Amino acid sequence: MTEIDANIDALVPAWLHLPDIAELLDVEVTRVRQLVKEGQLIAVRRGENRTLQVPAAFIKDGRVVKGLSGTLTLLRDDGFTDEEMLEWLFTPDPSLPGTPAQALAENRGTEVKRRAQALAV
Q: What is the C-alpha to C-alpha distance for residues 84 and 50, in angstroms, rounded to an integer?
């Protein structure tokens, strides 16, 4: 495990495997893979078997958290890697409060996107 993997593992409280996400979203696993490929979800290889996993916080009430896709696009446009995006989304920000991922889950995406846009400056 690389240093950034350990850091992300420490930040992200829970992970889901792609088949679990497919079940939660009521779609085929191929659709979940497509969401990852399109950049609407971030999946990283974790664990002993290096299976693809997605932070559980990205799924809520049977849907991808509102505002996540747009936030990921902004961060990607800012040159963030997947690992850097995960680190940013799951690092506590006292001024939010909580983490950007929590704020998205609580429907406070406008503020999260504003902060993501500010990173580009």
A: 19
